[in-house]
Amino acid sequence: MKILVCISSVPDTTSKINFTDNNSKFDADGIQFVINPYDEFGLTKAIILKEQLQAIVTVITVGDSSVEPVMRKALAIGADNAIRVNLKAEDSYSTAKEISNYIKENPFDLIIAGKESSDYNGGVVPGIIADIVGIPFANACNGLSTDGSSAELSREIDGGIETLKINLPLIIGGQKGLVEESELRIPNMRGIMTARSKPLEVIEPNETTTTLTESILFEKPAQKKGCKMISSDNVSELVNDLHNVAKVI
To answer: What is the pTM of this model?
Structure first.
């Protein structure tokens, strides 16, 4: 069984975000990059399936050389090989198109992607891949099992959980719950050393791939206002501020 995991390199959520060029470009200086959390759930699930079914796990990303440390971490966690498409990821369509081009030439039984990335939160890459490649797609999956020929899935829908059984090949958009947080793998020394000898292949992008979107302006959320503390004994002041200042009553 062959499994492909789509990986995105995103800023650590504890990083302080800044922008350059009149707030039109993200400033990556001093930023620690990590595997997108939703992708990490998917990668861990792929490694578990590898152990159960003797599957081969490949990770793929679209990006320049700066994303390679994240790919090496994926290899250290347990992926067998890695593919980097040498194209700076500018939008969801170009990213999905390049991954689709690779899949067309190198078919997989199961493709796992995060339902969205934690930086731009586009949430469309796995769906675009499914449309281009022409395979079934299930999004927001929080449960997955497979025997190598079909997969049983659970996913969140309005009002509950939907259970599906779909024949492979298949692509899913995974989320929290696909594995438990306690199951997430941390690279050990042996994994880190082994990752150095695992193949990380760099391929050039397709000449027909085009970027359809352009970032014009980034804006940070407004700074939170100060908090006024009122004693629990001073109910009249609380009611007065809620009525005359906050105007919520």
So the answer is: 0.84
